[in-house]
Structure formats: C-alpha cells, structure tokens
Design a protein that fits this description.
Chain lengths: 307, 307
C-alpha cells in the first residue's frame, strides 16, 4: 500500500550539546517519509531550491521513496537553524528562512493519485484542503499542523480537519486549538470537529490516541504508548514527524484498520521517534533495518506490559 | 504484612478551579497511609497539634490505620495553603506553617518495631537515618525526599539512601539530586549511591522504575506505568504520596518481591494517584473499595497493553 506525504523539505543547521550539523537534510515530509519507508511505499510532495544536492535526494531514493513530486524551484531550500540545550524539549530557533517553501503550491503527479493513505504535513490548511480534495479514493487521511496555523488560520484548519480520519498533533497544540488545558477534554472538543481519532504526542512521554465514540472498535477508551528512556538525545529535530511516519507506515502495511492495528501503530510511531533522536538529522532513519525496528518494538513492550 | 510510614501530617487549605477546602486532613504520611490501607496493615508516625480534631483521626482509624505513633504536641498542626490554576502541575504556595512539625522527633512505639516494610516520608534525612537504624528487621525500606533536603542536606541524604531498597522521587528532584537533566543517566547516578531501585514519578505521565543491574530479576531494563487521562483534576495535592502508598501497599500484600510484583505495584501506585486527584484532599482515598481499585487497574492495563 502507498502513502502520499505532502509537507516541508528543508536543510537544517542544528547545534546540541552533542555537536553541530550544517544544512543537513530535514523537513517534516522528509522525516515522515524516511520513517514510513520501512513499512510501506512512500511518495513525497514538496519543494526544494537549487541548493538541494543530488546526495540529499539520493538519501530519500535509497529508502525507495518516490521523489517525483518534489518540485525544484528557483532560489534556496527552506532553511531552519536552531540550538538545543541540556533539556532537549527546549529549542532556540536562530533562523527560519522559508525561501522556496513560502510560495509552495503542491502539485500531485498523476501516478500518485491512487495512494491509499495520505498524510497532510503541517502546511497552510488551505493547501491541505486542496490536496485532500484531489485524493478522493484515499482510505485514510491524517493531518498534522503547528501553532502557527492554529493561531493564524483556525477557521481554515477547522475546515481542513472536518473530513479527515485522524489528526496528529503535539499536546501544546491540542491545548491551544481546543482552548482547554485538560487533554481529555481538549481531545473531545477536537474530535467533535470531525476527526475519527486524535493522536496527541507528549514528546519524551510518548503519545495517546483518543477516539470518537465507537470508532475502530475502541469505544471511547484512549490508548497510550510510551517513549523510551534514552541516555543520549542527540538531536530531537523531526522526532514528531518520524513518529507520524512510523504510525502511518505501520497502518498502511496492514490489511485492516482495527483496534489492535492502531495500538501497534502507536508503538511503532514511538519506536521510530526514539531512533530519530539518537543521531543528528535523518542519519539514524536512513540506515535502520526492520530487525532493529522490531527489536525495539519488543523493548517498548517489555517497558510497559504486565505478564 | 505491616507497613510503617513516618512523615508529615498536615491540615491543608487548598483552592483550585473546582472549589476550596480549609484545614482539610493532609500531609505526606496521611496520603500514603490511606492509599496503602487498601492493601496492607499501616502504622503511622507523625506529629499533630491541638487543632487536630477527633474527626481527623477517625478518618485514619476508619481505614484501619494504627495511629498510636501520631504524637500530640502543644501548638498547631503543620498547615499548608496553596492554589492551583488551570494547569494542575503549577501550584502557588500561599503559606507553609510548620508549627509542631518543625521540632518533629519521630518516636517508634514498641508495637511498630516488627513492621516488615518501612516508608521514610520526606522529612530531614538525619531523622530518616535514625528511624531506619531502629528498624533492623524491615524487609524493604523505601525513602522519599523533597527539593528542600536535596539542596540543603545532600550529604545527609546520600547517607540516608545508602542502604535503602528503594528511593521514590519526582523527576525534577531526580534531575537536581543527580545533577543531570537526562533521566536515564540521572537514575544510574542515583542507583550507584545505594538504592536497589529508583522510582521516578512523572506526574500526569505516570512513573518509571529503574534498577541496579540484576536486582529483582530485572536486569537493567526500566518499566513504566502510565497515568490515566482524567477529565477533571480537582486537587493534585497528595497524588505522589498516594502513588507511593499504592506502590508499597501492593508490595506488602505479596509473598515475594519479584519483577512481576514490582511492575504491578507501579500500576497500583498510578491507580491510587489517579483516585487521589479526583476529589479535594483525602476525600476519595477515604471511601474506595478494592473492587473500584481493581476495576481501575484493569483500565490502566487496557490503556497500555497490546493484545
């Protein structure tokens, strides 16, 4: 089964207590695609500039990712620069140069139109709606967003989530979007706006999936996957997108979408997030094996399961 | 099996978005004892003043708690007053009147000396050491502390934890005590100081237990219990002590201390913490049934377990 992801492709300059990388391959669509590529066929839509190197593209192709939807535009690639301190949850953004991403207009190659799964990365909700409208036969559509759109385009975002199967966001975003500090109440408010399920990411504490009543055989009971206590978080950039990639990738690899598949998908999401932060940029996500992934899945199970 | 707890008994005045209570029964030993009382015999050591009412003591006795170790001193009971906002993790302390607690000198009644389990609440580590020294036959000793002692008496605290089986603290306390933001590394540093196991409480995200190598058949793998997403956290006061009470209480109710018992104990700790915050003060912990507790244990299992 194929997943189509639309989102940012970036070059990131990142400093942390563990080192520094300059203009390393990044962006939400990139982290998502690499993580998902271990489970399913992945197709990417994004835009890059003239400074995007053949090596950058090769890192995606080596993972079997279809890159024909990555448009090359005159100018420079979206560049983000930031610095993490001892607390990996706190980042200081040094520069955000949108460059060619500022005028991004997603174009869907004809060969992508039969994708069964669609992940709408955190772009302008108006663009998310446009892409969604062209993907009528998708079995499951999931949507991510960021505080920027929650604050600047709440109405368009409400429209964008009306008909999606899932929304996948951070807990601070969920609180802000719902206007409620309590996550259970916030999730109920967001689910009432349309999505059948809501995944709230808790960073170093894992993620919780909340459901509209009687969706996916769950009733209203949420399910929670942990994150792994790691002794070195070298670079947290892209962890949430890697989570989403593992989550959607596992779903796309299964015949049926039911309670058990969603629970396992949440675990695989956390697994991919835990790999992402162990090295700078996308390094770790480029060279995994399915054995390593399933080995870590087992560690997650042992971390949480009674006999 | 009997648990001896030594710690604070207080009267708390608490405001939250859900209401207000004045001079309600509280204190770390109280929350611990009430939570543990559903699993094992509990004996308390503490000090109260002349304003401690027969009704306050009756709330403990009704749960079968042995209160002969609660000393009555001239003056007033330890009084704490605080206010929670929309975010239950943030509290503004209005008053802390130590009163009779300031000169607290724990005295162990002879009938308590055969207690198999000992919980050293967050009092002066010098007093913790003294109590511990008198309880030579205890099978398991667990110790809690607070930032106050970590900052003011780190050497005494290091001495106090040298020979305990477990230390049970919040994650901010673990970070501060170990001088390391990373919780896995912090846990290794603290375990190297003596305890066989370390429980780190994450508040609304549950708790993780870390082990010294090859303790309790665990190897070095940690285990994590979640907290329950609740739609109303009315009063978070005492949640951590209720957690410790459920954790130690369950351990004391079992014949053997092994891997599986410790995992279940962590779940029971989270269960008792989740009950504690649903009502003001100790209200909810006074009127539970074992059926309600085991029902919620089952919900915790469903929240986290794959098929």
């Amino acid at each position: 089964m194929a997943i189509l992801v639309v989102g940012s492709v970036a070059l990131d300059s990142i400093r942390s207590p563990y080192g520094y990388v300059e203009r390393a391959l990044g962006g939400s669509a990139t982290f998502f695609a690499l993580a998902a590529s271990y489970f399913a066929d992945v197709r990417m839509i994004g835009v890059v500039g003239e400074d995007f190197t053949p090596q950058d593209e090769e890192a995606l192709r080596q993972r079997g990712i279809d890159t024909q939807g990555i448009e090359r535009a005159p100018g420079k690639t979206f560049h983000w620069s930031g610095e993490y301190g001892e607390n990996p949850n706190e980042v200081t953004t040094r520069e955000t140069d949108l460059n060619v991403f500022e005028k991004f207009q997603p174009k869907i190659p004809a060969s992508y139109l039969d994708s069964e799964y669609l992940f709408l990365g955190n772009i302008d909700p108006v663009l998310q709606i446009e892409v969604h409208r062209q993907m009528k036969t998708a079995k499951l559509v999931a949507l991510d967003t960021i505080l920027y759109w929650i604050e600047r385009a709440p109405k368009q975002l409400a429209e964008a989530i009306k008909n999606v199967g899932m929304m996948i966001i951070n807990e601070s975003e969920a609180r802000q979007f719902a206007g409620d500090h309590n996550l259970l109440r916030a999730s109920q408010k967001i689910l009432a706006m349309g999505p059948k399920a809501l995944v709230i990411k808790h960073g170093e504490y894992g993620a919780t999936i909340f459901f509209r009543e009687k969706q996916f055989g769950f009733g209203k009971h949420p399910f929670r996957a942990p994150a792994l206590p790691l002794d070195e978080v070298r670079d947290p950039t892209g962890a949430g997108d890697a989570f989403a990639g593992g989550f959607m990738g596992y779903i796309a690899s299964q015949e049926e979408l039911n309670r058990e598949v969603l629970k396992r998908a949440l675990f695989y999401g956390s697994v991919m997030g835990s790999f992402a932060v162990e090295r700078f940029g996308t390094e770790r996500l480029q060279s995994l094996t399915r054995e390593e992934i399933d080995g870590r899945f087992q560690i997650f199970r042992e971390l949480t399961h009674l006999e």
